[in-house]
Amino acid sequence: MRNLWNFIVQYQVILVFLLLQGLAISWFVSSHGYPRGAWVRLALDCESAWQGQINEWRHRTELSDQNFQLLEENARLRSSMGTPSSIQLAKRSQFTAAEVIRATWTQNQNYFILDRGKEQGVQAGQGVITNGGAIGKIIETTNDYSIGIPLIHNQIDWSARIGATGAIGRLKWDGVDPTAGMLFDIPRSAEFSPGDSVITTGFQGVFPPNLLFGIVANDEAPFDGEFLSVPVNWVVDFQSLRYVQLAKTKDANQINSLQNTVNPSAP
Questions:
Q1: Please, which residues bridge with residue 171 across strands?
Q2: Considering 100, 133, 173, 221, which has the largest number of Cβ atoms within 10 A of its Cβ?
């Protein structure tokens, strides 16, 4: 209290000036039409701008929540409907919605982290997709988070097919361009054209069949004397990943057990 009194005594002239200045401005604004109108307009503009910013933040938050709800709904619909190939093979897949909370796209071995883990039923080996396009697979989980490797990882091969009945090859990223990969081991006799779909085969047990990896690029396919290497443009923009879905084949355990009878050392 004593310090407050000393402060008032020390700065009494300034405090009195500020008080009188405030009273003068208040009287001037309240007694003159134009200044009062200008003051009201300024206050209204400031309040409107602030309220507009708050509404924009709220709107973005609501849109984010709605987007995630739509993603979950799409996951439920995918799980109930399946795909033509999965129906034909008597296989069905489950889909779980998730959000990307961290990701890289400028490294040779990129990764992404999702806000779903063991508590939400996520398991290593599950495929990750978005809007019908393949992204990558989960390699490790904790209780509430999981980490995965995307197509733009130069140590991973993916089983891919050109079109619904076309040639099958190894799809791989060269570690350079995050928007494109290369489909290897395609026979020279294979028929394809720029713009043809490059899709999942379902052979690796990561993805259901017929999900898009990308499309055949409008570039020359190199020939090594035995096979063609077909350039592919990814359908997914890895720099803007946010909402994804995790795919799980319901019969994966049965399929793996059959595979292990042929190759006991298989993981």
A1: 158, 183
A2: 173
Instruction: Point out the residues of the chain with pLDDT beneath 50.
Output: 33-36, 40, 48, 59, 62-63, 78-91, 264-267
Extract the tokens encoding 248. Answer: 């799980």
Q: Provide the 10 A C-beta neighbour count for residue 242.
A: 13
Fold of 82-250: Thrombin, subunit H (2.40.10)
Say what the pLDDT of residue 17 is: 67
Mention every residue, 6+ apart, whose C-beta is less than 8 A from residue 221. 186, 228, 229, 230, 231
Side chain identity at 237, as an amino acid letter? D
Residues 6+ apart with CB under 8 A from 105: 150, 152, 178, 238, 239
Q: What is the pLDDT of residue 79?
A: 47
